[in-house]
């Protein structure tokens, strides 16, 4: 049974490599909103949706895999921005397939309007929904949809 905070389902929001540089890295693509600001937006939306969140970022694939496995015991769902691991990590895909949790994949940019190698996503094959191209607001959309997924379980 997933743990909750004050009877609120806990959602893991996991962020992959280089997302710690949001706000300074390629602002013409990713905007000027920082990951800390996205976390604040997520906390506000989680409160509205009756969810609690555990917001994390790592540049290391194995750490993300460990967190996915941890979520299996501690969370009601996962929102994941796999960043550069989207089209490369079979290991992350395998970890996601090993948990029976709702999963929403989020990308700040529309990966389908970018370089061809970004069009394919291993994560999408495990995801219940994909949100791409909505900027930082995509995380809020993901939380709203996650609330519905969790309620329907």
Task: Explain what you see.
- The protein is an alpha/beta fold and 153 residues long.
- It has a single domain (4-152), classed as Rossmann fold, CATH 3.40.50.
- The chain contains five helices and six strands; from the N terminus they run E-E-H-H-E-H-E-H-E-E-H.
- The chain has helices at 27-30, 35-49, 61-74, 90-97, 137-152; strands at 4-5, 8-15, 52-57, 77-81, 103-107, 129-132.
- Strands 1, 2, 3, 4, 5 and 6 form a six-stranded mixed β-sheet that branches.
- It is globular and about 40 Å long.
Question: What is the compact description of this entry?
Answer:
Helix content is 37%, strand content 20%. It has helices at residues 27-30, 35-49, 61-74, 90-97, 137-152, and strands at 4-5, 8-15, 52-57, 77-81, 103-107, 129-132.
* Sequence stretches where pLDDT stays below 50 over 5 or more residues: none
Order of helices and strands: EEHHEHEHEEH
Number of helices: 5
Oligomer: single chain
CATH superfamily placement: Dehydroquinase, class II
Instruction: Give the DSSP E fraction (strand runs of 2 or more residues).
Output: 15-25%
What's the layout of helices and strands?
Layout: E1 4-5, E2 8-15, H1 27-30, H2 35-49, E3 52-57, H3 61-74, E4 77-81, H4 90-97, E5 103-107, E6 129-132, H5 137-152
Parallel strand pairs: 2-3, 2-4, 4-5, 5-6
Antiparallel strand pairs: 1-2
Helix pairs in contact: 2-5, 3-4
